[in-house]
Amino acid sequence: MVASSSWGAPSSCGEAALHYAQQGIPVFPVKGKIPYANTRGFYDATTDPDLIGWWWRRWPDANLAVPTGQASGWVALDIDGRHGGFTSLTVLKALLSQQREEVHHAHLPTLPATRVARTGSGLHLIYQTPSSALRNHVRCAGLDGIDLRGEGGYIVVAPSLHPNGRRYSWSQNIAPAPFPSRLLALLQQSERFRHREAAYLHSVRQLDSQEYPLRSQQNPDYWLEKAVQHACVGKRHTCALWLSCRLVEQAHLTYRQAEPYMRRYVERVPCGEEEYPLSDALNCLHWAIAHLAS
Asked: Concatenated DSSP letters for 216-235?
């Protein structure tokens, strides 16, 4: 792991590339953010000073990139302010805080202090790669403006020049912290839920094929009643997802406004051998907010 005291601020990307390499971090050149033609991108990343020197003699204006994942030991949360990333980061911290309280670790921070880079339009939060392979995620936990760069990815690093004229820079010069276990669990849960919802969407579309009075479509109570009418054991989750979509798309509710309707839905649907879990209903609402909210 790279010691925080070893990181300076070389003035050129060529010098910086050698500096990263000396710390054991493989690098490769990019044109803006894209690998050069006839190169293999992050597959070419190296710590070989001779090859690095040759690259920057060939492309003296090249930006500098680092592969994420096992190659560098880094995983990055990419916060893009142009697409609501800072708002989503606040939501992510709230989700992690809720998860933290549920397991009775309220004294722990939601996101540990770690190495932070300023990009042209946001931040990179750099963490150590977890023991289990963590691949790239777009819209982490369904949140706009937050992507994860892991296996098969890379990030542009300081002192590269962003297309908007700003330089990438390190703003929190400490060693990368271990990847937060609660965030890892949230990503894994989100991925499982994403695959699960894809299987339910066909049934949801069948419910949507029915015609509903236009005057009622902005009334959340109307959608709640319809969902409860259709719900039966075996269809409770389909109807929960359908209700979530209607509350967001038709009634234009926020998460806070829609949550009480999901709770009432759970209270009213048939129990069968087991009660329908509130957590599943709220996951449906999270999915609808992430994918359908305007």
From this structure: GTT-HHHHHHHHHHH--TTT
